[in-house]
UniProtKB/TrEMBL annotation:
PROSITE patterns: ABC_TRANSPORTER_2. It is a multi-pass membrane protein. SMART domains: AAA (SM00382). The lineage of its organism: Eukaryota, Metazoa, Chordata, Craniata, Vertebrata. Residues 32-263 form the ABC transporter domain. It comes from Pogonophryne albipinna. This is ABC transporter domain-containing protein. GO terms for cellular component: plasma membrane. The chain crosses the membrane at residues 298-318, 330-351, 381-399, 405-429, 441-469. GO terms for molecular function: ABC-type transporter activity; amino acid:sodium symporter activity; ATP binding; ATP hydrolysis activity; efflux transmembrane transporter activity; riboflavin transmembrane transporter activity. SUPFAM superfamilies: P-loop containing nucleoside triphosphate hydrolases. It is found in: Cell membrane.
Length: 544
């Protein structure tokens, strides 16, 4: 079944901008006209093979006028309805786009996509929040700061009361109506809905604008008996007087204006609220979502505790002898590598809500930096810091590592830094991915290479010079080096043995072992590993 896109010209009401608008109030709609719209895309190109792509024409020489009211765009599946709607809403990449879209006879403002409302085909609302909470979030970030919190609250309650927002699709519409947009675009608003729900959505759209005139009735064009109905409809429409009047008005609008490419007009995103207001509301919603959906946090903590118990049982109560040296090294290596692999779960952080983020960012809810900082903080605090600290506490005392307060806190800090750096690397890799599975493949490959150059599986000083540079990109290497220095300095493994009778090649002190491993165990040698992890974290986050 092919459904039509709907564009509703709403306009602003005559009330004060601080007065919550009711649906019963008359709205002055905006007139949308489009002239010589052409849109082309290149498909099948390949930069590696130097293969040129084929140019596909999506839209060809479209001209028309949408007066205030309810307007529908009809067409078969794949006919370019969604692309055309995106062009009208200024949400299409200007590359390959030519023509002109006018609002009330003037060029679209650069921030038109922030001023207009747009309901996407696949609903993008935070499912764990209530209708009121979603609308409150939209009002807090999209209404100007001059509107008080009480007035925003009244507007939300008014919308809930008048629209009867009980379904997800209605909630998406309500989140756009919160700003009283001059034009409301809806991409296939009845797709995936049963007949009753689809009818209720259409009735809702009619109620939004009481004076709306139905330009085209949305119909099911999938029936074989209705083939060619669009052509017949166009032919009949061109014979009527309304077509001639619309054509005349369209020519009047374009008179005296030069046709220009849409790419010549810059498109910007403007914000109604400041950085800190956006940060507060997005961070609040993010943590609220975590509280209402705690399975991931509990699972991460449970896995960390389980792995800590496993490593603690295997290396339980290490001794200060040759076996203790080997066991310590194995335990420290396992913990450094384990923190890298445990951080792979953060791949879904930026991928799971990608559609929601793109829609809200384009609509002017918040800045990219605000969203990224809030998601990163929520992930680091709940899924990285707490599990890492619990992991360190359990494993440290079960294994029986160096029993000093300073050594314990350096151990916890080192484990946490490895977790942070690995998480930042995962974010940098997954930032441009759309599928979690593909991101996990790249991250697993990176972790395997870093394991090899961590300092246990191969003696780093013995690596060929043309390969040795790879060790500087190994996160476990820096973590393991810091853990080694913290644990081995000051330890003796030949207690009670006459040092004169010790055969060559036997390591008796932690410092000797560190020298053999090529680890600088000075004070700066310890902290330079943390500095390196911090620099890597900053670089990865900058890339993300």
């Amino acid at each position: 079944m092919s459904e039509g896109q709907v564009a509703i010209d709403m306009g602003t009401n005559g009330a004060s901008k601080h007065q919550p608008a009711g649906l019963g109030q008359q709205r002055r709609g905006a007139t949308v006209s489009f002239h010589n719209i052409d849109y082309k895309v290149t498909v099948g190109g390949n930069c590696l093979c130097r293969k040129k792509g084929t140019i596909k024409e999506i839209l060809i020489d479209l001209n028309g006028l949408m007066k205030p009211g309810l307007n529908a765009i009809m067409g078969a599946t794949g006919s370019g309805k969604s692309s055309f709607l995106d062009v009208l809403a200024a949400r299409k990449d200007p590359a390959g786009l030519s023509g002109e879209v006018l609002i009330d006879g003037a060029h679209q403002p650069p921030n038109f996509k922030c001023l207009s409302g747009y309901v996407v085909q696949d609903d993008v609302v935070m499912g764990t929040l209530t209708v009121r909470e979603n609308l409150t979030f939209s009002a807090a970030l999209r209404l100007p700061a001059s509107v008080s919190q009480e007035e925003k609250k009244q507007k939300v309650e008014k919308l809930i009361q008048e629209l009867g927002l009980r379904r997800r699709k209605r909630t998406s519409i309500g989140m756009e109506l919160i700003i009283d947009p001059p034009v409301l675009f809806l991409d296939e608003p009845t797709t995936g809905l049963d007949a009753s729900t689809a009818n209720s959505v259409l009735l809702l759209l009619k109620r939004v604008h009481l004076a709306a005139a139905l330009a085209l009735n949305n119909s099911d064009v999938s029936s074989s008996s209705m083939q060619g109905i669009e052509d017949k409809l166009v032919q009949e429409y061109r014979k009527c007087s309304q077509y001639r009047e619309t054509r005349a008005e369209l020519e009047r609008i374009t008179e005296g204006k030069k046709s220009s490419s849409s790419s010549s007009h810059s498109r910007t995103i403007t914000y109604k609220t400041g950085f800190f207001t956006q940060f507060r509301w997005v961070l609040k919603r993010t943590f609220q979502n975590l509280v209402l959906n705690p399975q991931t946090s509990f699972a991460q903590i449970a896995v960390s505790l389980l792995l800590a118990l496993v490593v603690g049982v295997i290396f339980f109560g290490v001794k200060n002898d040759a076996s203790g040296l080997q066991n310590r090294m194995g335990a420290l290596y396992f913990m450094a590598v384990d923190q890298c692999f445990s951080s792979l779960s953060s791949a879904a952080l930026l991928i799971a809500e990608r559609k929601l983020f793109i829609h809200e960012y384009i609509s002017g809810y918040y800045r990219v930096s605000v969203y990224f900082l809030c998601k990163m903080l929520s992930d680091i605090i709940t899924l990285r810091t707490i599990p890492a600290i619990l992991y360190a506490c359990v494993s440290y005392f079960m294994i029986g590592l160096k029993p000093t307060v300073t050594a314990f806190f350096i151990f916890v800090f080192s484990i946490t830094m490895v977790t942070y750096t690995a998480t930042a690397m995962v974010l940098a890799i997954s930032a441009d991915m759309t599928v979690v599975a593909i991101a996990n493949i790249f991250m697993t490959i990176a972790c395997v290479f870093m394991m090899i150059f961590a300092g246990l599986l191969v003696n780093l000083p013995s690596i060929a010079s043309w390969l040795a540079w790879l060790k500087y990109f190994s996160i476990p290497r820096y973590g393991l080096a810091a853990l080694q220095i913290n644990e081995f300095t000051g330890l003796k493994f030949c207690g009670g043995i006459n040092t004169t009778n010790i055969p060559p090649g036997i390591t008796c002190t932690g410092e000797e072992f560190l020298d053999y491993q090529g680890v600088d165990w000075s004070t700066w040698g310890l902290w330079q590993n943390h500095v390196a992890l911090g620099v890597m974290t900053f670089c990865f986050l900058t890339i993300a």
